[in-house]
Every structure is written in structure tokens, then in C-alpha cells.
Amino acid sequence: MAAQLRTKKGKSKPTLLNRLELNGDIIFAAVFIPHEDSIITLGADKSIRVWVMRDNGKYWPSVFHHMPDVGHSLDFNKESGKVFVGMAQGTIHEYDLSDDVNTLTLARNYLAHTKRVNGTFFSLDYNWLLSCGNDKQFQWHCTKSGRRIGGYSAAKAPCTCLQFDSHSCYAFMGDRGGEIHVFKLSENSLKPVTILKGHSGGILSLTWDEERKLLFSGSADQSIIIWDIGGQKGSAVELHGHRGCVHNVSLTSNTKKLLSYGEDRMLVMWDMTVERKETPNWSQSDMCEKCASPFFWNFKQMWDQKIVGVRQHHCRKCGRAVCQKCSDKVSVLPKFGYEHQVRLCQECFLTIKEEDKVSTTAFYELKHGASHLQIDHSRGRMLTCGSDDVVMIWDVKEFLNEHS
Asked: What SMART domains does the database record attribute to this sequence (predicted)?
């Protein structure tokens, strides 16, 4: 399978450096070992492997460990050498990886969940292991003692992903219902703070900007939302650039770029230094707010005027409810996060200038149907995996720095 890229915008593009193949077994997760030419993978064959680049430029496994069940989530901490694997039946395995990455030792098992573990997050600052799974549970363990500290069971749908801010001790958990649960953790207690609601599809990925206190969420509804947590203003900016589920979002703090990868196989690079406007709320009305034509559920007005009701649409710039006749214009709106053409009312369309259509977002098509992406910021590299038996390693230094 040739790995090809079709550049949509920008002169530079990711360069394929290497690939690993597991001979037919799907790779569920993979992570870089920072500052090393090494990778950890979880395979459908119940294996966890540590791959090291040899002198011939190819990766070969230095560790092959067979687990009792399939691992689905993977977290690695370079400072401690700890590897955490969330299993299909609900347990979490803690391993210690030696400094020479040649030995992987099982340290402890956590009986954390009753169904598949989808997210694990280890905090070395507090020696906490956070996890979530298909049992709709959030669990919280101490890695020094192995004991359970607490949990949360108010989610209405299976939980999919986690993020944690060590400074504020806020934990963020996404679920398949499209909600993001926010908790405040202390030494022995968990306090629910709020539930962020904005997506119409399941949350597939979360990433946290520790410097600016922003939370990024990628969803099955094809959108990304930037939640301003630190500003405490409740603002949420939407990004629309994918035509499929957004599987991964990853922030590169040194270049202020957000990378997203989706079901459409598009790698999208968003410039986070650009000021964007919050998406307007969609107004609710029984008639077009431009021409007063009744919408098809407004039976009284339809009967009184002896006319057929029309379908409701919304202008993406002002948010007003309008009919097809009053919203027959389309345009891109990069400042509102819309990179594809969207519906506009005639009044808003006339206010858009050519400079308002200029985009700072770059698109690249990766011919690799992956569901997992990770960036090694120290080396400017990216790996993709998840839908087949291949892990691809890319050099992304130039294209991340192109607009810096």
C-alpha cells in the first residue's frame, strides 16, 4: 500500500519516514517513546510490543509480551517508565519499561471496570491513574498503593476519552452521547463541576492546552469545539473542516497548531494564533425571520394564509431561522471556523469581503485509514494507526512550522 498525500493548501507536507507491519493483526493503539527511535504498540493478537529502530533503519521488536486479553487504550509516561494498558474485559495493566527499552515487567493489575477500558491517563505529579470505559464509569486509583480512591457513575453513555490538568486538578471525560463531564479532584474526593454540551455526536478525542486553559474536543458529528475553560466565560468556538468523524485532535504547543484527523482521511492543521468568532446560537421560530413564511409545522399560520409551509434553515453567520428563498447564498467563513461552504442569508452574504474568505488552515489527504494519531513534539514526528496492521511514521517538522 503506497502512502500518498494530496496537498490541499501549503507548500510543505508530511514525509513518510517508516512503517511497521504486524502481519494481519489490527493495531489498536501506538505511542512514541519521546526522544527515542522507539514505539509501543497494542495489537489485536493480545500483544504489547516495543519497537526499536536498528542500524539498518528498520524497526524491530525489542519486547514482545502476550497479554491475557486485547488491549484497547495505552498511556506511557517517559519520566517513570510506566506503561498502562486498558483491557477489553475492564482491567488495567501497569508495566514498568526499563531504561534500555528491552524489558517490560508487569507491576500491578487494577480491577477498574466491568467492560472495555477506552481511556487511561497517568499523572506522575499525584501518582493517580484515571480511567473510563464502556461501563459508563470514571475510576480513579492511587498507583503507589493500588487502592481505588473514587469514581463517578452519572454518565448516560459509554465513556470514550480523558484529559487531566495537573495544575487545577480538573479532569475531563467525553462520552458517546456527546457530553464532556468535568470533575475537580482533590486528595480523597471528586466533585462534579459541569457537563459541557455542544456536540450532536459522540466525543472521540480530547486534548488540553495547559498554557491557555483550552479544551479541544473532536466528535462523530464532524466538528471540533474549543472550550474556554480558563477564561470562565463559557465561550465555545467551533471548527468545521472534516467531512467525517473527527477521530483525533492533537495540539503542538511549540508551534500553536492543532492537528486533527478524521474518517475522511484528511489531516487538518489549524492555526491557533488566529482569532476566531464564537458560532452564533441558532434561533427558534415558527416562521422565517426574513420574509415571515411559515415553517411546515406552523399549521395555524399555514391555514390562515392558505399557503404551504416551508422547511427551516439557519444562517451560519447570524444564526437566524430562515427559509430556502432567503438563504440561497453560500460561502466559506474561516473566522467562524467554517472551512467548507455553508448556508448564509442574503443580508449576511452581502457583508462578507474577499479577505474574510482567506483561510489559514491547511489540508492534507493521508491515504491511510487510521483512527489514531500521536505527535512526538521533541522530534517533530507523527504516527498514525488503527484500522489495519500498519503503523506509519511521518516527519511533520516543516509543515508544522510553515506558518509559524
From this structure: FYVE (SM00064), WD40 (SM00320)
- What the block records as the C-alpha cell of 238 is 467551533
Name the maximum alpha-carbon separation found in the chain: 82
Report which of 323, 291, 381 is spatially closest to residue 30, judged by C-alpha positions: 381
Q: Which amino acid is at 163?
A: Q
**CA 393 to the chain's CA centroid:** 19
* pTM for this model (two decimals): 0.90
Beta bridge partners of 41: 30, 49
Mapped onto helix, strand or coil, the DSSP state of residue 228 is strand
DSSP annotation of 113 reads: -
C-alpha–C-alpha distance, residues 63 and 76, integer Å: 15
| Type of residue at 397 | K
Q: For residues 225 and 328, state if they share a domain.
A: no
Per residue in 23-41, pLDDT (tens digit) is 777 899 999 998 788 999 9
What is the distance between the alpha carbons of residues 98 and 115, in angstroms, rounded to a whole number?
30
Task: Decide: helix, strand or coil at residue 387.
Answer: coil
Q: Which residues of the chain have pLDDT under 70?
A: 1-11, 232-234, 402-404
DSSP state, residue 276: -
Q: Could you give the 3-state DSSP secondary structure of residue 278?
A: coil
* Residue type (1 letter), 179: E
- What burial class does residue 92 get, using C-beta atoms within 10 Å of its C-beta: 0-12 exposed, 13-18 middle, 19+ buried? buried
CA distances from 136 to 85, 161, 178, 231 (A): 18, 11, 13, 29
Cβ atoms of 131 and 119 within 8 Å: the answer is: yes
Q: What pLDDT shows up at residue 367? A: 79
Structural domain count of the chain:
2
d(CA 215, CA 180): 10
Is 248 in the same domain as 164? yes
DSSP lists the bridge partners of residue 131 as 120, 139
d(CA 357, CA 5): 25
Within a domain: residue 377? yes
Rounding to the nearest 10 degrees, give the CA dihedral for residues 270, 275, 277, 279. Answer: 20
Is 289 part of a structural domain of the chain?
A: no
Q: DSSP 3-state assignment of 28?
A: strand
Going by the DSSP 8-state scheme, the letter that residue 356 receives in this structure is G
